[in-house]
Every structure is written in C-alpha cells, then in structure tokens.
Amino acid sequence: MNQRGESRRHIGQMREAAVAAKAEAGRTSDPEERGRLERKARQLVFDSEQESMMAAGDIYPAE
Q1: Tell me: the pLDDT tens digits for 35-55?
Q2: What whole-number distance in Å separates Cα of residue 27 and Cα of residue 44?
Q3: Residue 16: which pLDDT band, with cuts at 50, 70 and 90?
Q4: Smallest Cα–Cα separation from 25: which of 37, 39, 41, 42?
Q5: Please, what is the Cα angle at 29 between 20 and 43, to 5 degrees?
Q6: CA-to-CA distance for 54 and 29, rounded, in angstroms?
Q7: What is the percent of the chain with per-residue pLDDT over 70, rounded to a whole number?
Q8: What's the burial of 36, exposed, middle or buried (CB within 10 Å: 0-12/13-18/19+)?
Q9: Which pTM was predicted?
Q10: CA 1 centroid distance within chain
Q11: Strands (E) located in 1-63
Q12: Which pLDDT band, with edges at 50, 70 and 90, does 6 fall under?
C-alpha cells in the first residue's frame, strides 16, 4: 500500500476509535470514566483532522 493509502487507513482508524470512545462514554455511569472517554474521543478527532490536513498538504508539521 502506498503512503497515501496508509495515511488514509490510519485516519479512518482514528475516527473509528473516536466513535467507539464516544459510544462507550455514553454507556458508562461513572462520571470520571465518561469524561476520560469524551476527552479521548475529542483528541482522536483532532489528531485525525490534523493528519488529514497534513496528508492533503494543507498544513505542514512543525520543524
């Protein structure tokens, strides 16, 4: 698989993990665990968006 396809696959995995974490947060009754899972989901979405923009050439990593 080429680098672009690998990047796309990784971005998709991060987005799927974010959806799973958000769903799990909705099922838990522990407020601390819910908060942790919601933060994890937000971070995964942010990271996937950043990686997507880098792959598209919209932003460049800090040197």
Answers
A1: 999 999 999 999 999 888 887
A2: 19
A3: very high
A4: 37
A5: 35
A6: 37
A7: 89
A8: middle
A9: 0.79
A10: 21
A11: none
A12: confident
**Residue 14 tokens, joined:** 């991060």
Please tell me whether residue 29 adopts helix, strand or coil conformation: coil
Residue boundaries of the structural domains of the chain: 3-56
> Which pLDDT does position 9 carry in this prediction?
92
Q: What is the DSSP letter of 58?
A: S
3-state helix, strand, coil in the chain (%, to 5): 80, 0, 20
What is the distance between the alpha carbons of residues 36 and 16, in angstroms, rounded to a whole number?
17
Q: Which two tokens stand for residue 40?
A: 């994890």
CA distance 12 to 62: 23
- The pLDDT value recorded for residue 56 is 76
Q: How many residues does the chain have?
A: 63
